[in-house]
Amino acid sequence: MRLFKCQNCGQLLYFENTRCEACGHPLGYLPWAMTLSALDADGDRFRPLAAPDRAVRLCDNAQENACNWMIPADSDATLCAACRHNHTIPDLSLPENLQRWQRLEAAKHHLFYSLLRLKLPLKTRIEDPEHGLAFDFLADAPDPSAPKVMTGHDNGLITIALVEADDAERERRRTQMHEPYRSLLGHFRHEVGHYFWDVLVRDGDKLEACRAVFGDDTQDYNAALQAHYENGPPADWQEHYVSQYASTHAWEDWAETWAHYLHIVDTLEMASAFGIRVRPRLVKEETLTADINLDPYRGKASMQEIVDAWLPLTFAMNSLNRAMGQPDLYPFVLSPAVVAKLGFVHDLVHGRNTA
Fold first, then answer.
1. What integer pLDDT is reported at residue 173 of this predicted model?
2. Domain assignment present for 200
3. β-pairing, 134-138 with 86-88?
4. Does residue 219 sit in the same domain as residue 352?
5. Torsion of CA 18, 21, 26, 30, to 10 degrees
6. What distance in Å separates the CA atoms of residue 279 and residue 277, rounded to the nearest whole number?
7. What is the pTM of this model?
8. Does residue 60 contact residue 79 with C-beta atoms inside 8 Å?
């Protein structure tokens, strides 16, 4: 994620901001320009200070405080580049649903920032009714005995359980499933990984190359899932997988690795924007030092160069979190096998030969 600033007064801004707290200017994100812009009102339209020659208007979901992305004023669209992928949203007349959906949209828009930065193919369900990317945000039925909504992916349609936006429930599930990390953005990044396995691997003629790195995806998925929950991961899982769940099946290994790839490149971009340097004073080991000054989204750096910047940064971030009595920000180990898998994803998204 980049840093943004108000073009009117220079105040630093968060990606989610809708108004500059310093000068009061309304703000909107311009996905085609990849920037957050201060806006001057022009009737029912706006003139972005970052691109004053192009009038824009709000996404319809702005009226629910669920989106700050803009649409070109001459477009027929009513939803922005991120919101047009919504297939089902919850009943917003219920205040709890609205608040949870707003949190989900914040995470989803963060996801789309990355997908657009990487220039990945993003067809909607209207553009591709069978395989387009779409999201169902579903609430559990009022009847407590009814089946619960399960987060998952099915041929481009990603279901996100609305209850995941409840911090207490998400923490309960994290503990119950023995996960070191569980977040809304993590869910989106993982599930969209399944979609891009279909698009980039299956439909991109990369099955054999992917199997050489991630294993045999033709193994029975349901049987593998059942075996994982009954027996747990293999004893040496950390040597081969980024998480315990990644050891379940080749599809989950891919999706978990994909999610971590997005975690890494997006966090490193923000660290670079802040000019972060890691220089521990007690040691002189080069492996623990880094000047974070690369653009990991552009693909010019190798995966090893990205990891070489990532490891010192996570050591510092984890140490800072511990000083605050918080869990490690990144509680994962990147073994050589995992780095190779991340490298496969890195090369694939940037169109390099992975055969």
1. 86
2. no
3. parallel
4. yes
5. -50
6. 6
7. 0.94
8. yes
